[in-house]
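Per-residue structure
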Amino acid sequence: MEVLNSCCPVCGGERKETAAPEYACAACGFAYAFVGLFAGERSRMLWKSRVDRAKRKRRTDKMRMLSDAKAFVVGNDLAAFCSPDTKKLTVIYGDGTVHEEDNIVQYSVSGRNAAFLYGDGTVRVVGDNDYGQCRTGGLTEAVYVTCAPDCTYVIKRDGSVSAIGSPADASVRSWSDIRMISCGAYHILGLRRDGRVMAAGEALDQSVRSVIEGWEKVQSIAAANDCSMALFADGRVAFAGRRENDPRREVGGWEDIVSIGVDSSYAAGLTKNGTVRLAGSCKKDLDMGRSTVSGWENMMAVSCGRTGIGGITEDGELLLTGSFAGDNIKTMKKIWAEKLKKSLAQLWG
């Protein structure tokens, strides 16, 4: 049985002509991309199952990459995407204005500030400067940035932490080997390179801190004003907070999760198959459609703001629900489609 493939069945990469037969795809590395002869139908079906498995892995790897890079950000009045490949940032605001900037590695927002991490390791912060949180001009070798109320947290290349402004707990400046930071209004989480989690905050209960610092093999972290979450390397999720009856604790039963987010009412988890799981509740008049997120499918990224949740579908479409300043979700989605939809669909093939 003969099958002729001019494009890789996993990533769509074109076959390169060489003197000797080449079966592997140069673009994605799939070893059997251009196998053309099969002993029979059983052999072809075995090849097809390997193709399907490689496609699923490629999709999952892309989802994890977007999550780790914090490429997709939802704020009070904006949706933003910072491409891990091109380093181009696009921010779309609720009033219809757009900010585009090149050479951006990461973008972070809080209620009053926005931070830009550049490819050369420098950081620029705009917005309120009452606590000096915009004074990042002397920083170099930054690899991660997080905007928080009254403070900008920066991780340096060596894993040390700089807290510019008024941190929730000054002890974070003594942390080491940190690779990710997330924070609520009164506490900070730091994910260490060894997969353990640090926690700080004067208002943080000792019992909650003990739970957080007992987590191991953590892949990612998320925090809201009153809680903390961890995503483990095996796809499980953990929750820590003061309220024993908090409905967001349901995340403890989740599996196969590749990305997490949390706000003051809901916790969201993106699964390997592209569906979104949701835990939590709030009053009906405050929900603003956020409870419908559990019905989202074919997703590549999800992000939680303070009062809104956003997602990006496989074909690059922006989904938004909740409350956004200006109440211009339709306008934001329209601009996103014009600016980003096609390129995003191509990015994850």
About this structure: The mean pLDDT is 92. The helical segments are 41-68, 206-212, 284-287, 329-347. The radius of gyration is 22 Å. The chain is about 15% helix and 35% strand.
